[in-house]
Design brief:
This protein is an alpha+beta fold. The chain has 16 helices and 58 strands.
């Protein structure tokens, strides 16, 4: 507190003391004047009472008559007091009585428990009347010291403006002052440089009873009376712009605090749209945020413009809430249908957000869905109560304009995922706005994995990727009427999707439902002449849908053991294959031409599909038999088709006759992302040669899976077949060539095993052989004369593969030389013709074939024609004549 304030308090104390002296004398006490002056508040802000509690800074008036102490004392001390052991401590302050034996205690420097003692006899504790601050006597008995004590505590005070800044006009000029103290009620002096008393009064008058006439106030100070904890409204209307720091001082204690706020020029205010452009697909919901800037506390939003776009919806915003903004949702599926829910307020933490929208009064009716293209969304602060005029003014003189781009919807695909019941429950039981993040996290951590084959009793998740459905799903919860159809009142996405899949919403051409979700058994799975099993959503229990609005994904989730099928349910010991199809057939979404016929309209349905199967749940061990040694940390491993995250038990039970018998169970075995599992046991209390059976428990198998085992001194590592020394590696050959490939296969484990070793080209096995190897042994495998006739020219990965390892390289196949070879054949045909002309012996004819070697060097053989083409034709003829002459000569010889 400032020195001026402290001085003012001291002056008040003297003033009040004088008043009380006069008032007490008027009562007519017969005692000495000093005693008469001490009935009531003698001086300061409060009466002194033994056992009383005061706030640091308060001034306490008291009186000590001359008969109180013996002999009479004028000087007194205020000493600390420990009530736990009735101990009087050090001096905290002291005072001397005035001529009327009055005094005032200034508590500014006090904090704790205290007593007033005779300075000349410190064992004398002064006792006071508990109502008027007049001393009644003394005590020297330590057991009575507590009756003369009093307590002083600091008053806490925290003052904050809720907002860093405020406007100076209209609703924008109000903000909240947050007040907190440990005192129930007090008076407060407030001041701020640059503000006079009248301006201060205007700011705080709505919150408190204010006092501007107290003679002790400065010209730029205001007294706030009866202040208590809590939030109060302050009003900065017409206050000049600038940064203001307010000082708050409790009138009768040392407590004080400051709070700052920046006052800005509000002006007339505007209503703006936070997003400049918005892109969405036809049928989906467009969300956008409208912000009140400055003094505007109401406004108008116009979606479209009848004159420019053929559609218009007018929205009156009646309350922007505490945060001066509101988020609107515009349903492009129901736009123009006359449904009030076409424009709604998105749920936020601010419950004060409010709009007025009546489809019949504020929206243009259109035929068909809102066309693709771009639309204006205009906003302004007009709010006269005349909606048509406000909309017209907003279009002609808007504060802001955003652009909404509507694209045609798409249906892109369907995928299948699998999850354990526990992991699926984590997703479906999460809050609706946290379900997608929970699902994504589970996928990232391999707790939900993509798989078209789902084990029986696991959860199947069908991910449908399609845009344009959001508005239809939302409409399914409105209860409104579209044509002759009353929409549902579904309150969750699963019920909404079921409604669209079972109800004809807008189809007048053929009466089909809006969408179709068909999970139908394949003919090859059912067998000839058997009814196909078909998933019926209305019969499926625990059916959930999780919606990813941002990415237009819809996750249909159901337990395969609870799935309801028409024509018979799936049993736990069979494998059943299905085709999953999702079809959009809603007439409003597909938006056919006016003159389209029924069969043409059905051709426009959009369908996506994927295979899906529910399989018997299986599990296996990696070894059979499965031996362990008599030690701790023995691991049993295996694999299963159950979903990752599934938990089950593995049990090892001693065989009959084993003494002592044992049962060992691992209850928390979990399926890993790749389908493997591992269970660890302590066999240190068993004996070598003990025999046992290891079994899988609580996994929901149709038949118990188990293997035998024996306790051994040392467990041999399982067989592992590695591949090396592939020969040849990168190789080039001609289509039709036969290949011979070799490689070394080694069993790096300790147990003997047999595996099928394959030679693969392009991922396909083209040759194989069974190889048996003892632990540590190796062999060379050869794949001889492997044909390539069935392959096309190109590059392939080729290599040798075992169950555990592989080595690969690149095989390049070139096309056979058909074109050049054919030319060469033509040339030899020509030479045969020359031999035929003489009918000479074959040996001489072979001499002629030497000439064909020359023809291989060029395409000149193409000139060998029967018409005696110039050039090479004449040469061939000449050679033929010479050969004939020589032959004739030999014959003559």
């Amino acid at each position: 507190m400032t020195n001026e304030t402290t001085t003012r308090k001291k002056a008040n104390s003297v003033f009040f003391a004088a008043v009380m002296v006069i008032s007490m004398a008027a009562v007519g006490f017969a005692a000495a004047p000093a005693a008469a002056a001490n009935t009531g508040t003698v001086g300061g802000d409060a009466n002194f009472t033994n056992g009383g509690s005061y706030y640091a800074g308060q001034e306490i008036g008291l009186a000590i008559p001359n008969s109180t102490t013996s002999p009479t004392a004028d000087q007194f001390e205020i000493r600390t007091y420990d009530s736990a052991d009735n101990n009087i401590g050090t001096v905290a302050d002291g005072f001397v009585l005035d001529d009327d034996r009055n005094a005032t205690i200034d508590t500014s420097d006090l904090d704790g428990d205290y007593v007033v003692v005779n300075a000349n006899n410190r064992n004398e504790v002064i006792l006071f009347n508990n109502s008027d601050g007049v001393a009644t006597g003394v005590t020297t008995n330590s057991n009575d010291y507590d009756t003369g004590s009093f307590q002083v505590s600091p008053q806490s005070l925290t003052m904050n403006f809720e907002d860093d800044s405020t406007g100076n006009d209209g609703s924008a000029a109000t903000t909240t002052l947050e007040v907190d103290s440990n005192r129930p009620q007090w008076d407060l002096i407030v001041s701020s440089s640059g503000l006079d008393q009248d301006e201060l009064n205007n700011i705080f008058d709505d919150a408190y009873t204010t006092n501007t006439s107290d003679g002790d106030l400065e010209d730029e100070e205001l007294l706030l009376e009866d202040v208590t904890d809590g939030d109060v409204d302050t009003n900065f209307t017409d206050i000049d712009t600038g940064e203001y720091e307010f000082t708050f001082e409790v009138a009768d204690t040392d407590a004080e605090d400051t709070a700052s706020i920046n006052v800005t020029d509000t002006g007339d205010g505007e209503v703006n749209i936070e997003e400049g452009s918005l892109t969405q697909q036809q049928g989906d919901i467009v969300e956008f945020t409208v912000v009140s800037d400055g003094a505007a506390d109401e406004g108008t939003v116009v979606i479209g413009d009848e004159e420019d776009f053929g559609y218009q919806a007018n929205v009156s915003i009646t309350d922007f809430g505490d945060d001066d903004e509101i988020t609107l949702a515009f349903n492009t599926y129901t736009a123009g249908l006359g449904i009030d829910e076409t424009v709604s307020v998105v749920d936020t933490d601010d419950e004060d957000d409010a709009i007025e929208f009546s489809a019949s009064a504020d929206e243009e009716t259109i035929d068909g869905i809102l066309a693709s293209g771009d639309y204006d969304i205009s906003s302004a602060s007009f709010a006269t109560g005349n909606d048509d005029q406000d909309a017209a003014d907003t279009l002609s003189s808007s504060d802001d304009v955003a652009t909404m781009f509507l694209e045609e919807p798409t249906t892109e695909g369907v995928q299948v995922w699998t999850a354990s019941n526990d992991n699926a429950d984590e997703v479906t039981s999460a809050d609706e706005d946290e379900q997608i993040s929970t699902l994504s996290s589970a996928i990232e951590n391999d707790l939900i994995t993509q798989s078209e084959a789902v084990a029986y009793d696991d959860v199947s998740i069908h991910q449908i990727s399609a845009s344009g459905l959001e508005g239809a799903l939302e409409a399914a919860s409105s209860g409104a009427t579209v044509g002759t159809t009353t929409l549902g009142a579904a309150d969750n996405p699963a019920d909404q999707l079921e409604f669209l899949a079972t109800t004809n919403v807008s189809n007048t051409l053929n009466g089909d439902t809006a969408v179709e979700i068909r999970v139908e058994e394949t003919r090859s799975s059912a067998g000839p002449n058997q009814d196909l099993r078909v998933l019926n959503l209305s019969k499926t229990s625990n059916f959930d849908v999780v919606v990813d609005e941002e990415n237009d994904e819809y996750y249909l989730i159901f337990d395969t053991a609870d799935a309801g099928f028409d024509n018979g349910d799936v049993a736990d010991d069979e494998d059943v294959s299905f085709d999953v199809e999702f079809t959009v057939q809603d007439q409003r979404l597909l938006n056919p031409e006016d003159d389209v016929e029924q069969d043409e309209f059905e051709d426009s349905y959009t369908t996506v599909s994927t295979p899906f199967s529910i399989n018997e749940r299986t599990a296996s061990f990696d070894q059979d038999p499965y031996n362990v040694s008599n030690a701790a940390g023995q691991t049993v491993t295996g694999s299963t088709n159950a979903a990752p995250g599934t938990e089950f038990s593995v049990r090892a039970r001693s065989d009959t006759g084993t003494q002592p018998s044992f049962v060992k169970t691992q209850d928390e075995v979990t399926v890993a992302a790749d389908g493997t599992w591992s269970a660890e046991f302590d066999f240190s209390d068993t004996t070598v040669d003990n025999e046992y059976t290891v079994s899988i428990q609580q996994l929901g198998l149709s038949e118990t899976e188990e293997v035998d085992g024996t306790v051994v001194e040392e467990v041999q590592s399982p067989a592992t077949f590695t591949v090396s020394e592939l020969n040849p590696q990168d190789v080039t050959a001609t289509v039709g060539d036969a290949l011979t490939i070799t490689a070394t296969v080694e069993n790096t484990g300790e147990q003997e095993a047999t595996q099928t070793v394959e030679f693969r080209v392009g991922g396909d096995a083209v040759a194989s052989q069974d190889v048996t190897l003892a632990g540590g042994n190796s062999t060379t495998v050869e794949f001889a004369d492997v044909p390539t006739d069935s392959l096309s020219a190109g590059e392939y990965e080729h290599g040798v593969f075992t169950d555990d390892d592989s080595q690969t390289a690149t095989l390049t196949l070139e096309a056979a030389d058909g074109s050049d070879g054919s030319d060469g054949s033509d040339g030899s045909d020509g030479s045969d013709g020359s031999d035929g002309s003489d009918g000479s012996d074959g040996s001489d004819g072979s001499d002629g074939s030497d000439g064909s070697d020359g023809s291989d060097g060029s395409d000149g053989s193409d000139g060998q024609t029967d018409d005696g083409t110039p050039g090479f034709g004449a040469l061939v003829a000449l050679v033929a004549l010479i050969a004939a002459a020589l032959l004739a000569t030999r014959r003559n010889d």
